[in-house]
Amino acid sequence: MTAARHRWKPSFGLALGLGLMMLGVAAGFDRGPATAATTERVVVDRHTGVALYGFDPVAYFTDAEPLVGRPEFELSFADAVWRFRNEGNRAAFRDRPKVYMPVFGGYDVLAVGRGVAVPANPHYWLVIDGRLYLFESPAARDAFASDPGKALAAAQARWPEVLKSLVP
Fold this sequence. Notes:
The chain is an alpha+beta fold. Helix content is 40%, strand content 15%.
């Protein structure tokens, strides 16, 4: 595992932070549950810091299916930890990450087109023109597939504003 991964350790600061958060909720300042959708430019598992929930981004291209990566083949890139099935996939990603990373950081393409950052499910995907697109549901994937040009135009137009809503 890489040094970029942190283990959760209870602390006084955490207890204080949770207490302050509860006060904010009681006072009506609740902004909903903290999720990757509002905190990351690349969707990561908020408990582990692993991108794509541990799926190997290169496998979508080489195996034409989502396959889980292995902890012994990790790589840190774009403030996330990426897992791969083997050293060859890790090396391919290291050499050309922009080719293998999901477009829009792993957020659902249709949601981005609506101006919202919704983490996609790595099981719902398409590779079109050599790029990986992820979706939150089969219905979203099917809607995208029916008119990819229109969906991409909407997502590309709204992506800068979505990025601004994400914490750097």
